[in-house]
Amino acid sequence: MSEWIFILLVFGLVIGLSVFASRFFNKLRVPSIVLFILLGLIFGLLFRMTPIGNFTDYDFGNIVSSIALLFIIFYGGFGTRIKEAKPVIGKALVLSFLGTLLTALILGSLLYCLLLAFPASFLGGEIGLAECFLLASVIASTDAASVFDILRTRKLGLKENTASLLEIESGSNDPMAYVLTTLLLLIVAGVSDNPWDIVTEVSISFFCQIGIGLASGLLFGFLGIFLLKKWGFRLGQGAPILVLALAILSYVLPSMVPSPYAGNGYLAAYLAGILIGNAKIPEKKNSVLFLGSISDICQMVVFFLMGLLATPENLINPVTLTLAVLTFVLITFLARPVAVTSLLLPFRSSWGQIGVTSVAGLRGVASMVFAIFAITSLGQTALPFDLFSIVFLVMVLSLLVEGSTLPFLAKKFHMVDSSSDVMRTFNDYLEEEEVSFLRLSIGENHPWKGKALRDCTTPDGFLFLLVMRGKYSFVPNGSTIFAAGDILIASGPSFDGSEAAEVDEEVVGFSSPYEGKKVKELDFKKGTILALVKRGGEVIVPNGNTELKNGDILVKMAVNTSLEGDVAEVREDNLHTN
Length: 578
What we know:
By secondary structure, the protein is an alpha+beta fold. It has helices at 3-27, 33-47, 58-78, 82-85, 89-115, 120-123, 129-138, 144-153, 162-172, 174-189, 195-235, 239-255, 265-277, 284-309, 312-315, 318-344, 351-359, 365-378, 387-412, 429-432, and strands at 435-441, 463-469, 472-474, 487-493, 501-507, 528-535, 538-540, 553-559. Helix 12 runs antiparallel to helix 13, helix 16 packs antiparallel against helix 17 (351-359) and helix 18 packs antiparallel against helix 19. The radius of gyration is 29 Å and the shape is elongated. It starts with a helix and ends in a 19-residue tail after the last strand.
């Protein structure tokens, strides 16, 4: 078996196992991301029994995780609904940039001061201030994938627009953490013996990352909106692929500039994602589904890869365990709460919002990507501690402790709003919402002819949007009287048949037993109904007297009796026999 075939085999098994096991993890109230990490650890142990041995290819991990993080960050921006976030966008951006900086400064300072109390013989050498700040910078940002996962799966609606606050902060603070990480790498590597040269290069790098990153994000964001509005309808299903290409280009362009003048590609991708995601573009629903699937796969791959790269012996090393637990305690109970409180109090945020925001500082994929980036930049032996294993343990502790307790603590802080729909805070809410538009014709014998809208009985959730009467169209109200020939446009919840029923199509041919028969004469399998008949360009909702013709396409729906729980049985007398 070739190496690539083996990799594809593992990849397929991981994704398949993840899909089936994620439901079990949701019942345990544990973030599903932990599942991918666990699978990576298991496969890593299995690899050790093969000629592959320990998988410690950090260069490969750096390439894969960096590409995956690009798509995750872009989709984080694409899915941020700015309209819902306007009341908190100011404080969210302050938390994103100043909060990340302040968290890193507080954590790095506390780590350095506390580590002075440990003997150098235990730590394996002295750990300097720059190394402490590097570790703090790597884990300073919160993880958008983890926060989104908890908010969506737990349907955690929060008061005071706190959900939007957390989404924008977690989606936009990775670029700032990346800036801090690259600056600290320059200091730790000692790019020059002259301190002034180091300060100069760090300053140039900082302003170039921010400036060029913003310029690239704006360029490809507005370029994408222009191209999609002009040619999106002609591209059809190619529009989502164009959006994907724009995401890649927004990241690549600033990254191609030679160091220290390179821009921040992650900042560019996030900004481009926000601009395109909040614009009215063609094929947006397809883009949401396409990019969402890619983002989900990237999360699976990265977290699995992190588990694969982790070495059990390093994880249980006393020094690594001590540094990891100390770092987790400091950032969770001191650095993050102090930074959040000091920045949100001037905005007059409630203590409940401050408490929930402090708890929601989950660490995840970005921290691991930056840790691998630091290792490949400096070398595995350049640091006096195992950076990867420390960050890995902090991430796992954060997901297990903060991720599992966030819904509970949100209730304790009285911040849960059961009346709000957290999905509205995501820009893809309207794209994911299952809403269909219906076209109804009022004929001479229609029961609604001559009746006012308020007197017509309709199911809950249906809304009449438009009445087309001859050459004129108007929006109806309760007193609108329907006339023969009116065409009504209504919206209502749609059903794709995937959950409770199976939808199938069958063509009526010359030898078909259905040709020339009326619907009431058909003998369908028990539990099956005829939903639609497609005849040429016409769609017919059949009744018992509808006669089927050669070339008709029958759309049949059968109840899926394999689902858990009770499924209502469709009786034969409920079929179209009238």
